[in-house]
Amino acid sequence: MSPHRFAVVALVTTLFAPAVVRADPWHLTVSAGTDFPIAAGARVDVEGPLRLRLSTSVGVMPGAYVDAINAIGTSAGWYTDSEAQLIRTALRSSFVWRTHVGWRPWPRLPLTVMAGYGLVTLGGGASAQELIAGVTGATIPPGTGSGTYSYAVRSTLHMVDVEVGWSWRFFSDRLEVSACVGFAGTASSHTTITPQYTPRNPNAAAAFTNYGAQYLDDTLQSYVFTPVLSLWAGWRVF
To answer: What is the CATH number of the domain that holds 127?
Structure first.
């Protein structure tokens, strides 16, 4: 057997043979890090038999992360700068919960493939009536044509994503650093726009806010898609 063929056989044997005879232990890892531009926060990973993995994380979406998502959307021509400003108002400082299931195919390689769900909610801020009307084309309620009238804008996103990751372990395999690249998109969204004043014509105000919310939902579901770069550092508890 040539040296090259011997090396290939040895590598394949090293990677695959131990997986047939060895039971995979349970592992629990607690980490801190970021899924840019979705969230920054904390995560828990569990790996069990057959190297199947489950992870869940909680965090917050900073305004700068929303700006990064908007930079992709405006650069691609998916929506305008004014629409981006309204999206930033609706999403900034949102709470983010993400859960993934995945698999580490080879026992000797720290490569993991994951797919999951993300919830982005409980954020938002105030936006001027003129901006909402200008972006959405909704008719301004009668009696509010001049002066300062603002609305609370909040969106909840349901996102799905896939990712591929690699990890490194240090200090007797206790310290784990992982990096992932993936892609996330909005599967559905729900937006509320609420007057921060007492409308003179509640029906007209409701028509204005409902139209604006539907417009923003259509934009979020059609165009909020982004690559995701993740970096986490954690401690393997067992």
So the answer is: 2.40.160.20
